[in-house]
């Protein structure tokens, strides 16, 4: 169902005004005491107090803000009348200035709470009807929410998120192949932001739902980057779910893609799985022929066949001088890098690490096309990890 355009425009206008006033109250909260009365911030807030009957009275949830603005006006009036030069007048002014600062802080909190409520309500409407909502509008709402969550932890915001059950809506849209890829990717970004916001609260929802399958099956570079970030945050429990859901073969298959960026992102994900993965996850990767694929990638990389950006020879020559070796050779020593991840990682016991190291060396010898190649890679594996 389409929202009334006039109502939408009114909410947008109110949001813009309150955002500006939130900034004004923040500045007032931190303003030097000598500039309080003359500041533009105090003028803007007092103008809102004057218009509160027509602006704030329409929303009962803004009643506290209206009361705070009235209190602010009273304090400013009292401060303006306090013009004596004695100790008592000085102490009174100091007290009033501190009170104004506290009230400004409360106003900022009230405005932010209102903005959060309106933003989440608008986002919920869009997520409930993703196919009926304009793609750019929904992406914009998701991006704004991601930015808000990324500002840092807030108990009030967390309560709003939990009460709204917005995580379930994000997961549903992300896993819906009928929704646009752009919207699904932005949902993934929001999920990643929520994990950074409070991993202890939201990690369980990632592990219990279909979100992991949704990220992998989306076959998107951005979704795979999100998966890598989730592995870094949630660690071994997430890798356990990836393995038990049978997603490892799909992830390994991304190494076969022709697109270089796809292979780089897949390699990053595999290295994270290697670091946090337990025995079952590592066995699944080896069973899928990972070492053979890594040897082939390393062989191609050392021959310089992977990097082809369409530049002229002169441009390529300058690029080689400017870029770091790791950037121009993303798969250099990739077998040893994987072995090191297992060696220093958190998922395996010591005896398992030793056993997998021997298994990797065995598979390297089987995958190499010459004794010289095998000797080079074996030496890298042995030197790159502790005995």
UniProtKB/TrEMBL annotation:
Stretches assigned to the GED domain: 1-36
Signal peptide stretch: none
PROSITE patterns per the UniProt record, alphabetical: GED
Source species, domain of life: Eukaryota
Cited PANTHER family: ARMADILLO-TYPE FOLD PROTEIN-RELATED (PTHR35834), ATAXIN-10 DOMAIN-CONTAINING PROTEIN (PTHR35834:SF2)
Protein name, as recorded: GED domain-containing protein
Source species: Salix suchowensis
Species lineage: Eukaryota, Viridiplantae, Streptophyta, Embryophyta, Tracheophyta
């Amino acid at each position: 169902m389409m929202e009334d355009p006039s109502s939408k425009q009114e909410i947008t206008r109110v949001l813009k005004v309150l955002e500006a006033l939130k900034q004004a109250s923040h500045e007032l909260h931190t303003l030097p005491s000598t500039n309080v009365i003359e500041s533009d911030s105090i003028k803007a807030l007092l103008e809102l107090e004057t218009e509160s009957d027509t602006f704030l009275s329409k929303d009962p949830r803004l009643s506290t803000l209206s009361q705070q603005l009235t209190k602010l006006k009273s304090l400013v009036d009292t401060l303006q009348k306090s013009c004596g030069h004695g100790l008592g007048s000085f102490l009174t002014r100091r007290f009033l200035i501190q009170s104004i600062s506290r009230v400004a802080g409360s106003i900022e909190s009230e405005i932010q709470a209102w903005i959060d409520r309106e933003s989440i309500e608008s986002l919920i409407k869009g997520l409930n009807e993703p196919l009926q909502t304009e793609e750019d509008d929904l992406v914009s709402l998701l991006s704004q929410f991601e930015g808000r969550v990324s500002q840092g932890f807030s108990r009030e915001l967390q309560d709003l998120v939990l009460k709204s059950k917005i995580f379930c809506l994000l997961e549903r849209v992300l896993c819906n192949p009928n929704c646009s890829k752009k919207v699904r990717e932005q949902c993934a970004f929001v999920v990643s932001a929520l994990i950074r916001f409070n991993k202890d609260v939201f990690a369980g929802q990632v592990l219990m739902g279909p979100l992991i399958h949704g990220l992998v099956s989306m076959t998107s570079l951005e979704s795979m980057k999100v998966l890598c970030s989730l592995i870094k945050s949630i660690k071994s429990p997430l890798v356990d779910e990836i393995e038990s859901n049978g997603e490892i073969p799909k992830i390994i298959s991304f190494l076969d893609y022709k697109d270089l960026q796809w292979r780089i992102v897949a390699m990053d994900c595999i290295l994270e799985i290697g670091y946090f993965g337990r025995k079952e996850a590592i066995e699944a990767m080896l069973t899928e022929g990972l070492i053979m694929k890594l040897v082939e990638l390393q062989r191609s990389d050392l021959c310089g066949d992977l990097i082809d950006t369409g530049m002229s020879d002169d441009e390529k020559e300058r690029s080689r001088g400017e870029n770091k070796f790791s950037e121009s050779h993303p798969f250099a020593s990739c077998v040893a890098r994987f072995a090191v991840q297992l060696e220093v990682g958190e998922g395996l016991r010591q005896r398992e690490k030793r056993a997998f190291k021997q298994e990797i060396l065995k598979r390297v010898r089987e995958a190499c096309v010459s004794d010289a190649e095998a000797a080079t890679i074996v030496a890298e594996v042995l030197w790159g990890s502790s005995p």
